[in-house]
Amino acid sequence: MNELLTKGIGHTEFKDSPVGKIPVGWEVKELVQVGRCIRGLTYSPDNVVENGLLVLRSSNVQDGRLLFEDNVYVDLKVGDEYLSKNGDILICVRNGSRRLLGKSATITSNCPKSTHGAFMTVFRGELNFYVKHLMKSEMFFRQVSIDIGATINSINNSNLLQFRFSFPSLPEQQKIASILTSVDEVIEKTQSQINKLQDLKKGTMNELLTKGIGHTEFKDSPVGKIPKGWEVGRFDELATLQRGFDLPVQERVDGKYKIYGSNGVIGFHDDFKVAGEGVVTGRSGSLGEVWFVGVDFWALNTTLYVKNFHQNHPKFIYYFLIWFDLSRYGTGTGVPTLNRNDVHNVCVAYPPLPEQQKIASILSSMDTHIEEKQRKLEQTQSLKKSLMQDLLTGKVRVTVH
């Protein structure tokens, strides 16, 4: 990447092509010219077992990576042609959600023995080291959006093989792929660091909110062993929740105050209903997310906000609600709803104010570290997006020796 940004940039002559202007010397090819599609496996619930052949599905493709979570295994014999190979590109070609169509991940050597499900396809070819980057580009998803049709959320395999891209010479493909892969490695490393920090924060939060800081003496309580000196009481003695306020869309006037709905910030208004610092959570639809708001804001009627902190530390209450997991108290099957009265009756234990402040400070510091890593991740992702646009179209050329 450093070589590209310091000495690997060059301009070239362009020519017209079926995919637009491309550098002279580049060639337009359909995917069928550089590889083939391997259709997915169809199986029934009777074939599903606890241990067997792993079936890769759309849930295994997350953020361009292959993750082995929520796995499904089958007891079926599959020909070698349909077993996953190192370098295969796994693509989601059918799904109830259009946003998942075209999402892909490259199968690597650490992948367990596997095949792929009927809603997936595998693209296999000698140029997959380069094609895998094309399949994450805007050029690819523009062709996906044309192919999926108006009503059926699927990509036709035969049409997929007719997708067209411009290809440079093999040495230039290798150099471009090397640059983009190096950026991918930075992204993956940063994401891994974020995941570890989030796991550490979760464990630290559980430790602090059950055992406190530096306690050696504990006592029995209705919620189990707690540090001596902690208080036990009803939830609404720690924090009183209140339903948010109606604000129809037609009555909203753009302003500086954030409007919080059950999924977080959904807009702005010229007035507020809750003075900061505040804590708000989803009441209807989406439950469990909690937001700390440092300034005045409007809490919609799909939320609950902390009306009274009872002289407790607001940031501590924020972390307490995350740990407490309000979604456990949701009711209803269609649209889950959180009734504050069901929560207010619950017995909870909590430390005195000075210890609340220390706990909030520790967890806030961890959040700051995570946010710094998140900014780095977003910057690298933005860099990759611009690099892909420049390198895969030939707008920026790399030096090949």
Care to give the gist of this entry?
By secondary structure, the protein is an alpha+beta fold. It has helices at 2-6, 128-134, 138-147, 157-160, 170-211, 235-238, 314-324, 340-344, 353-391, and strands spanning 14-15, 22-23, 27-30, 36-39, 48-49, 53-56, 61-62, 65-66, 72-74, 89-92, 104-106, 114-116, 120-124, 164-167, 218-219, 226-227, 231-234, 240-243, 257-261, 264-269, 278-282, 290-293, 298-299, 303-308, 330-331, 337-338, 347-350. It is elongated, with a radius of gyration of 27 Å.
Indicate the topology:
Blueprint: H1 2-6, E1 14-15, E2 22-23, E3 27-30, E4 36-39, E5 48-49, E6 53-56, E7 61-62, E8 65-66, E9 72-74, E10 89-92, E11 104-106, E12 114-116, E13 120-124, H2 128-134, H3 138-147, H4 157-160, E14 164-167, H5 170-211, E15 218-219, E16 226-227, E17 231-234, H6 235-238, E18 240-243, E19 257-261, E20 264-269, E21 278-282, E22 290-293, E23 298-299, E24 303-308, H7 314-324, E25 330-331, E26 337-338, H8 340-344, E27 347-350, H9 353-391
Parallel strand pairs: 6-12, 19-23
Antiparallel strand pairs: 1-2, 3-14, 4-13, 5-9, 6-9, 7-8, 10-11, 10-13, 15-16, 17-27, 18-24, 19-20, 21-22, 21-24, 25-26
Helix pairs in contact: 5-9
